Amino acid sequence: EVQLVESGGGLVQPGGSLRLSCAASGFTINAYPMSWVRQVPGKGLEWVASIHGDDHGRIPAYVDSAKGRFTIWRDNAQNSLYLEMNSLKPEDTAMYYCARSWGVRLGAPRGQGTQVTVSS
Q1: Less crowded by CB within 10 Å, the N or C end of the chain?
Q2: How many Å apart are CA 17 and CA 40, to the nearest integer?
Q3: Are 60 and 51 in contact (CB under 8 A)?
């Protein structure tokens, strides 16, 4: 059974940092593109960052608003995906999900999410 479990969210002040983790089971993450997506109430899923599988050199990609602030990477030994978020802004507030997909893809396996709230 494919399972993704996110953790690491929380309340942080503007300018602060958080590291999100996603533990995968039921498949090997290095064989798949993986993504972080986010959602605020009343809006659709927004793509944040993706990283290719090992066969494509683990090349990452980011939404423009995340470039220079967020870093996505994977640890194959831990079968886990991570998102380091720095210089957080109130507009980064959302539920963050990891997904087994490149970008937002309806029906792709996704975790239950971890809430990130950026507020003073």
Answers
A1: N
A2: 19
A3: yes
Q: What is the mean pLDDT of residues 23-50?
A: 96
φ/ψ (deg, to 5) at 114: -135, 130
| Long-range contact pairs involving 65-69 (C-beta distance under 8 Å, separation at least 24) | 65/91
CA–CA distances in Å: residue 89 to residues 25, 55, 78, 82, 86: 31, 34, 29, 19, 9
Distance from C-alpha of 56 to C-alpha of 96, rounded to nearest angstrom: 25
pLDDT in tens, 51-91: 998 777 778 999 999 999 999 999 999 999 999 999 999 99
SS3 54: helix
Tell me the CA distances in angstroms from 22 to 14, 43, 63, one per residue in order.
23, 23, 19
